[in-house]
From TrEMBL:
This is Helix-turn-helix domain-containing protein. Residues 55-67 have a biased composition (Basic and acidic residues). Residues 39-52 have a biased composition (Polar residues). GO terms for molecular function: DNA binding. InterPro entries: Cro/C1-type_HTH, Lambda_DNA-bd_dom_sf. It comes from Rhizobium leguminosarum.
Amino acid sequence: MHITWKTVDEWREERGMEKAELARRANVSERTIYNGLSKNSRLQPSTKSNIRSIFPDKFDDRGEVRQ
């Protein structure tokens, strides 16, 4: 399953995390997050692995998003 920035933004809000903090921890620019949200684009594979390390509870053992 593909993961989009809107999904990641929902997870960020659940944790009460600022977008700037998410950008810093995911090693992307804040502008990348804003652009991804406006277009609801998919995450690149390298960014997805960074997001997986930030939100490990949202992924299963195979690295797929839990429903």
